[in-house]
Amino acid sequence: MSARASTGRRRRALLGSATDITAILLVIVALFAILDFDAFFTTANLTNVLISASLLIVMAVGATFVLVTGGVDLSVGSVLVFSGVVAGEVMKAMGGQGWGAALVGVAVSMAAGAAWGVVNGLVVTKLRVPPLIATLGSFGAAQGLAQVITNGNDLKDIPYELVDTLGVGRVAGVPWLVVVALAVALAGGLVLAVTRYGRRTYAIGSNAEAARRAGVSVDRHLVSVYTMAGLLAGLAGIMSYAQFGSTTLSGHATDNLAVIAAVVIGGTSLFGGVGTMFGTLVGTMIPAVLANGLVIVGLNSFWRDFAVGVVLVAAVYLDQLRRRARTAR
Amino acid sequence: MRHIRFGAAAAATLLALSLAACGDGSGDGGTGSAGDSFDIAFIPGVANDAYYGSVACGIQAVAAKSGSTVETQAPKSFSPTDQIPILQAVIAKKPDVIIIAPTDSKALYAPLRQATSQGIKVVLVDTTLEDPSLAEAEVSSDNVEAGKVAAQKLVELLGGRSGSVLTVNLSAGVTTTDDREKGFAEGLASAPGLKYLGQQFSNNSVQTAASIVSATLAANADLTGIFSTAAFNTEGAVAALRSANAASRVTIVGFNANPPGVQQIEDGTVAAQVVLKPYDEGVAAAEQAINALTGEPVTKQISTGAVVATKDNLQTPEVQKYLYSFDCPAA
């Protein structure tokens, strides 16, 4: 027992709670590679998978922090759309083209997202509204405002500078969207794993009262976590606008659930206190790989929803087992 | 113990996956027999819509003649965010031609460019792109004309009654439904005694459509006609009229020849449904696709018309043929 437990512990130090799910991802990739190697296992196709996951990765990084504190953020998809719309209007007002407009657009989008994050954080901490309800409220409010601003019409004029770089451009063969997503994940992972900010996030999720007694300003920390989640949704907003060349008002209605599913599949506990950024990355890749691979092997992509559902429940079941094992120890 | 449980969970996941993988046994085993048979990929705008079912039937009918295979992959919502990943996976399979109903006139341009740069031909069906030059052909319904036909039918059905008329539209910026409203407004302009209230957008939600109609009824007691440009809107309008007890004095012209839409005509809750010709669209798209692949001359732009179904003509063959369905008519 002790020998196995110690290798298990070492392995967990590396991958955290994501060990099992990483194995599942590798098996899924191997399965598709066996079924249709030529179409699935090419650089071009795997790059496509990463592109289609990049928006969710950026939002899932923020959601990992939120879930680790024991909270939840349902507003991300709407905040994404709202931020893209606000940035679009500002860029339009600046003449619509040029590097100036493009850079201001990126900044405005992130600021608009962060603003919703501040609202979420304040409603949760100061008004004591449960995160589920607070962010469900802003989910509706942000989507509604985005439609009010645009009158329901998707904005479509975005600076070519932004489309050619962030939208479809590549650095050394890697799409900008993927570079940004992985950079955000790396930065988020480091902050969560090795900084005092990360340790405080875990501490609040494990036991907020204990953290408060230990001198952590819990409310301020929570506001900052929701703000970061909003800011990243804003970043995803400008990425989405650049990628699709359209604000896709109706295209992100279920992003929030997809993000939460990805984070939870990746081993982050809904009860807070547990989770790794690597797990989140894996959890985001599983639905993306399934969506791509199932089409390639000639199956209807609806099977993805079914398979993701099974993986989600399996992941939470494993989480429960882990908790039971920990309390038994 | 933990490992055993993990094994069980992992096994369940894999079982689910392999079940999924076995679900479709047919695969593409029988392809590549004759020299001029092709792999055709069809990507509709959204799944579970009988309209695209009829388009697929038309494509299938043409493909069968040359022994070509058709594989349909549909996004779960009418949105580029769902459609583009599917398109990219389809491109990875390198079919000979992709027939697609783009869900956004701009967002689909770059990914389709990717397809053509790999030598895959592209044919646009039903919806189109802002810059359709990359496509071999574009086939669409003349929605302005269909809107006009709807207006004429409504005027005929009202038979000289006066009052207000409302359009319940889908979402702003959808070219097809915008065109329907445009044609309808033009067609109604010449009708005496009818006051056009303009359009309201439901964003394809039954609840929103219902609340739009209730509010309009409250504000305009003389509401006498409703033009609904899409299925959910019609269902919302019917529900709102029923709960306001106004079904008998308001005439609805819908835009849905799906099975539920046909049911509405039979029930009498909807007086008429405009019927586009998706089957013809599918046939035309597949014909042009095969022309492009075999080097025959291609017609760049094709537009198909509309008929109006009412209780009186519902059973006639020329209407029956065009009702939207996943069950293809016998060839």
UniProtKB/TrEMBL annotation, chain A:
Q: What is this protein called?
A: Sugar ABC transporter permease
One GO cellular-component annotation of the UniProt record comes to: plasma membrane
Specify whether Lyase is a keyword of the entry.
no
Residues crossing the lipid bilayer are 12-35, 55-87, 99-119, 174-194, 222-244, 256-274
Major localization class = membrane
Instruction: Provide any one GO MF term from the record.
Output: transmembrane transporter activity
From the Swiss-Prot or TrEMBL record, state where the protein is found.
Cell membrane
Keyword ATP-binding on this protein? no
One matching Pfam family, short form? BPD_transp_2
Taxonomic lineage per UniProt?
A: Bacteria, Bacillati, Actinomycetota, Actinomycetes, Micromonosporales
Query: Could you tell me the keywords of this UniProt record?
Result: Cell membrane, Membrane, Transmembrane, Transmembrane helix
UniProtKB/TrEMBL annotation, chain B:
Answer yes or no on keyword Signal.
Answer: yes
Q: Where in the cell is it found?
A: Cell envelope
Gene Ontology terms for molecular function: carbohydrate binding
Please give the CDD domains that the UniProt record associates with this protein: PBP1_ABC_sugar_binding-like (cd20007)
Enumerate the spans annotated as Periplasmic binding protein domain: 40-296
Its keywords, alphabetically, are: Signal
Protein name per the record: Ribose ABC transporter substrate-binding protein
Under the heading InterPro entries, the entry gives: Peripla_BP_I (IPR028082), SBP_2_dom (IPR025997)
Tell me the organism: Phytohabitans suffuscus
Q: What's this protein's family per the entry?
A: Belongs to the bacterial solute-binding protein 2 family.
Q: Which GO terms describe its cellular component?
A: cell envelope
Is Chloroplast among the key words of this record? Answer: no
Give the signal peptide range.
1-23
